Amino acid sequence: MEREDQLDQPFGLPSKWYNYKCISCNYETKIEDVVVDAYFYSQGCKKDVYPTFTCPKCNKRMKYTRD
Fold first, then answer.
1. I need a labelling partner for 66 at 20 to 30 A (CA). Which of 7, 23, 37, 57 fits?
2. What is the mean pLDDT of each run of 10 residues along the chain (67 residues)?
3. CB contact burial 17-53 (16+ within 10 A = b; e otherwise)
């Protein structure tokens, strides 16, 4: 049984958000670490190479930009 003081604690560590920018229309957004990690392994990315995503505005490629 959970103690009352544990009920307000979040599950796991706080999320980290990564900045991504479209190479075509310059749309910018933040993508949560769990999504980046999942795509990293599913796309077979190399170490220190961030996965790319599809831009929701123009359907072109979005790339990671430094925070």
1. 57
2. 55 88 97 86 74 94 89
3. ebebebeeeeeeeebeeeebeeebeeeeeeeeebbbb
Q: Is 64 exposed, middle or buried (0-12, 13-18, 19+ CB in 10 A)?
A: middle
pTM: 0.73
Task: Return d(Cα 62, Cα 67) in angstroms, integer.
Answer: 15
Report how far apart, in Å, the C-alpha atoms of 53 and of each of 25, 28, 44, 63, 66 are.
14, 12, 14, 7, 15
CB contact at 8 A, 31 and 18: yes
Distance of CA 10 to the CA centre of its chain: 19
